Each structure stands twice: as structure tokens, then as C-alpha cells.
Amino acid sequence: MTSTDQQTFLSVRDLKVHFSTEDGVVKAVDGLSFDLAKGKTLGIVGESGSGKSVTNLTILGLHDRDRTAIDGEILLDGKDLLTSTERELERLRGNKMSMIFQDALASLSPYHTIGTQIGETYRKHTGASKKEARARAIEMLRRVGIPQPDMRVDDYPHQFSGGMRQRAMIAMALVCDPELLIADEPTTALDVTVQAQIMDLLKDLQQEFGTAIIFITHDLGVIADIADDVLVMYGGRCVERGTKEEVLRTPQHPYTLGLLSSMPSLEGPVDVPLNPIPGSPPSLLNPPSGCRFHPRCTFTEKVAGGLCSTEQPLLDLIDGRGSACHLSLEQRAEFFADVAASRHN
Ligand code: SF4
Fold first, then answer.
1. Backbone angles phi and psi of 35, in degrees to 5
2. Contact, 141 vs 114, CB < 8 A?
3. Can you tell me the distance from the alpha carbon of 193 to that of 181, in angstroms, rounded to the nearest whole number?
């Protein structure tokens, strides 16, 4: 059972995001559904081009409206975001939902002080005075662990270290106490120590404010640290879902197994060889027929009738746990145990 069955705050139903390019239509997201409750973290995992970032830009309404066709439903606290006007979405962004991007330097303006940038976001959404906004910026910098915040508030981004800029961006994302926070690979560019500090900070802030968090990453180690539930995406579709423990300990999909086999084991011996998944992610202009993972999957011959390349497996969920694969659960238990054993021999 997923840990999000409490009160759903964000509900995504059969989301399809297709956009036109000169070469044709890219099916970036192709029928995605999930729920997220307040105070919980959903980790979305997948390689680049799997549709995870597009999903989240669509939730925030930051997609290119002229070139994108969207179908499905996104409900935030009961409000349908896909039928909201640009003005309504702008009010919700910052106030109710907010995003932390991967690259703080690219997201912060080099021309304005950190304090001005955090304060302006606050003023825009609350109508606070400049003095109130400055006080709020100092308070937020303190909260994200910037030393001497009343002095550093007047620094420009280039005067901050990479870790401090990332904290400043988190402060900006949280300045209006958003109820939904989307973090897109927020620690990828940072060293391991700062990464751990930022993760602890997000967990503390979540405890304090009950924020719902979507954490996008390609790194299952990060997921192990921060997520409650996990959604694995491949080729624009969800291929596996469950709690963090279920997905990481007993993966059901060959792609998830491949991701786990390509990272160092958290518990096993350190000299186990890593097995990267062969091949590369599918083109979403011309996705493979049947199961989109079939050109890279090592289990296709175990499925009778060549189904893997002809028939799309459905996502079979019971209480929020399941995967999309033609192998039976018994087959997976047997084959995946063999893979796990070979990693430890
Ligand atoms: Fe592999 Fe077939 Fe399962 Fe897809 S459906 S993951 S190709 S075994």
C-alpha cells in the first residue's frame, strides 16, 4: 500500500503531454496517474527523456502552451490546473506550489541581490512592503542555514558558494510557504556533504510545514534517503510504483532492476561489479511498439508469443503497488533473485 492514501493533495489522472516539433509529435508523457498527500515525498525516477521533468513543468503550467497538447486531469487541492487560466496559475505558483531547479546560478538573476530576489517573490504574492519583504528574506535565509543572514541578504549570487546559492533558491521557493514543492534534481551539481545538508533541510522544512514534495532524480540513492513513495518512469510512462521499501527491496520491473544493478549496493559488499543498462532511452518521436523497454530488456525471451514487442503491458496496481510488465510475478521473483544473487557472488 502506498503511503499517500491519506488525504490526497495532488492528483494526476491519465496525463498525456504531447508536443509538436519539426520532426513530428513527441509523446513526452503518455498516460500518467499518481496521488500525493501533504507531508509526503514522492520520488520520480528515470533517465533523462523519461518524461519526469515535463510532467512537473506541466503541473506548474510552465509548458509551451502553443505547441503542447495536454489531456487528462491535474487536481491541486481539488482545483483543476489544466482548466485554470494563466493568471490563476501564476497566483498558485509561489503561493501554493513552487519549484527548485537543478541549477541555482541559472535560476537566480546576477543583477539583483539575494535578498531582493527572495523579497520580490514574497511581495508579489502577499503585497507586503519592501521592509516586510526584507525581514522575511532574512528570516528565510536563516531558516535554510545561511550564516549571518542579516548581512548576506545584500550579497549578489556570485558572492555565494554553490551550496549557499542552492539554499538561497530553496529559501525563494519556500518564501510563501507553498503546500507543494517540486524539486528537480536539486542536489545533482553539489558535493556529497552539501547534498546531504540540503536533503536534511528539505526534510526539516517538510516536517515543519507539512509540505508535499515531488523529488525528481535519476539517482536511487537519493530516493532511498528522501522518498516515501516511488514512481519509476520509462519512455513517458510509469513502469513501476510502490513505497520506497517495496520498489528498492523487491523491484518488479526489469527497468527498475536495471537501475538498481547499475548503482553501488547500499548494503552489500563494495566490490560488486556494476551492470549499466545496455542501449539508450527510446525516442519519443517514434517510441518502440509494445513495451517501450523491450529493445533493452534481457527478459523478452521469457515472455511467450513475442508479446513484449507487440503489446503494451498495462500498469497493474493493487493498493498503489505494481508494475507494467508481461512477466508473471512468479517469473520475476525467480529471475530477479538470480540477478541479485549474481551481484553478490
Ligand atoms: Fe521486459 Fe517484456 Fe517486461 Fe517489457 S514487458 S519489461 S520487454 S519482459
1. -125, 155
2. yes
3. 22
Distance separating alpha carbons of residues 143 and 149, to the nearest angstrom: 9
The residue written with cell numbers 491519506 in the block is 6
SS3 322: strand
Mutate which of 233, 240, 259, 299 for ligand 1? The one with the most ligand atoms within 8 Å of its CB, which is 299
Pull the grid cell for residue 203. Answer: 526534510
Q: How far apart are CA 61 and CA 10, in angstroms?
A: 14
Are the beta carbons of 283 and 26 closer than 8 angstroms? no
Measured at the CA of 9, the angle between CA 228 and CA 140, to 5 degrees, comes to 75
* Cα(62)–Cα(59) distance, integer angstroms: 8
Q: How many of the other CB atoms lie within 10 Å of CB of 307?
A: 15
Here the cell at position 301 is 525471451
Ligand 1, atom 7: nearest CA belongs to which residue?
Answer: 294
Mean pLDDT of the chain: 88
The per-residue pLDDT for 271 is 56
By most ligand atoms within 8 Å of CB, the mutation choice from 252, 326, 328 for ligand 1 is 326
Q: Whose CA is nearest to atom 5 of ligand 1?
A: 325
Q: What is the pLDDT of residues 63-110, one digit of tens each?
A: 888 889 999 999 999 999 999 999 999 889 878 999 888 776 677 899
Cα–ligand 1 centroid distance for 262 (angstroms): 18
For cell 513530428, name the residue: 24
> What letter represents residue 291's amino acid?
C
DSSP helix/strand/coil, 25 = strand
Closest to 125 in 3D by CA, of 114, 109, 136: 136
Return all residues near 159 (Cβ < 8 A) that are at least 6 apart.
none
Residue-by-residue DSSP string for 282-299: PPSSSPPSSSTTGGG-S-
